[in-house]
Every structure is written in C-alpha cells, then in structure tokens.
Amino acid sequence: xxxxxxxxxxxxxxxxxxxxxxxxxxxxxxxxxxxxxxxxxxxxxxxxxxxxxxxxxxxxxxxxxxxxxxxxxxxxxxxxxxxxxxxxxxxxxxxxxxxxxxxxxxxxxxxxxxxxxxxxxxxxxxxxxxxxxxxxxxxxxxxxxxxxxxxxxxxxxxxxxxxxxxxxxxxxxxxxxxxxxxxxxxxxxxxxxxxxxxxxxxxxxxxxxxxxxxxxxxxxxxxxxxxxxxxxxxxxxxxxxxxxxxxxxxxxxxxxxxx
Length: 259
Ligand SMILES: [Zn+2]
Prior knowledge:
5-stranded antiparallel beta sheet, 9 strands, Muramoyl-pentapeptide Carboxypeptidase, domain 2, binds zinc ion, two-stranded antiparallel ribbon, 2 domains
C-alpha cells in the first residue's frame, strides 16, 4: 500500500516536472520582445507640452489618461520627486528625485526587495532620494561634510546605484532611532547592499548602494557593474533610456543652479 502511494507521488512529480519543462521550452522558442520588459517607462500620452509639476502630491492627483504609450522623450518628467524638508531635514533648494525607475534596473530590484523585507518586519520605508544629478551633488558638497564627502561624479547616486531611505512611523520620518536603523541596515546587507550606517564620516544610515565591485573611478570612466544577463536581457536598452532621462534631469537642475 505504502509503495503504491509513493509510486503515485513519483509519477505526479514527473508529470509536473515535464509540464514545467514544456513551459520553459516555449519561452525559449518565442521571440524575445525587450519592450515587454520596459513597462517601467510607460506613461500617459499627452497632446501639449506638459508643465513640470512641482510636488509629488500633484503627480499623485493627476488623473491617468486611458491610452498608454511608451514615451521615450518625456518619460523623465513622470518621475516622482520631493521638495526640501519633505522628510523634516534640510536637503537643499533643488528637488530630490524619489522614483525607483530612476535607478539601475538590477539595483532597483534589490531595493524593491529591501522594501518588501522591511515591510515583512513591520517597517515602512520612504524614499528620500534615488538618482541624483551632478548639480544636486554639487549643492550637497557646498552644504558641507554633514551631507557628503563626494564631489560631482563621485557619488553612487549619480549612477542610479544608491538610494536614501527613512523609516516612517505614524506618518512621520524617524531619523534618530539607531536600533531601528540597524534592523533596516542588516536587512539591506543580507541582500548584498552596502549600508551607510557602517560609515563614520558621515554616519549615513538611510543610504544603501551597490556597485558590483566597481570603484568610483570605474564609474566615472563609464564602466557598468556586471549583471546576470539572462535575468536582465534588455539591460542595455533600459540603461540607454535611463541615461537619456538622467541627462534631461541634469539639464533641468543645472537651469535651477543658474537662477
Ligand atoms: Zn545617499
């Protein structure tokens, strides 16, 4: 009797494995469409030039249109951003980009996982800043050591490879809870991220980054961290569009500098 049952389970297992193989084989033979994976950059179709919205609330309130098209020209304007003091701290005059889409795709996925893993522990995180322009980095540099030690080009934020977060309790940003930071930091480290809470100058517990082993100099030279290609088959296309959007933001923020 026992033998019969285990035989049955074995047969079922084989059938299930075969079914799984069939699906994989289908995936292998269908043509790969990179744009299916680019839905991060989908945005609403617009007739006239859009005025740049000035707050995340306005973006949230904007009604979505029925038709969606891939906008490779103005997609950067859809990125969420926040103004100074949104999370109670002085972060300079230029707005901070808070959109996950502004990050390198591989790093972005690790950060999504960080948010999920923290959520599972009952910790809600907000994004303070994701991608950072050279103009914004220079602003921090001028604001002093408390903000950054890195000049333009030397921060991981400028390559979409760093993010600043803060835990939110009762709708308020909690900056001073060291034990809470430690839990968040360790969660990020388990995902292979470098955590700014290990640094002394400045102690930067909201900061996470990943460079795949590359140095600042490598990044300045234009090198990109190695990423498993089978998981990110559209990486090059996505990065090309991302770089274009970064440049658009750069232009917009250097205009702020000149004012
Ligand atoms: Zn940072």
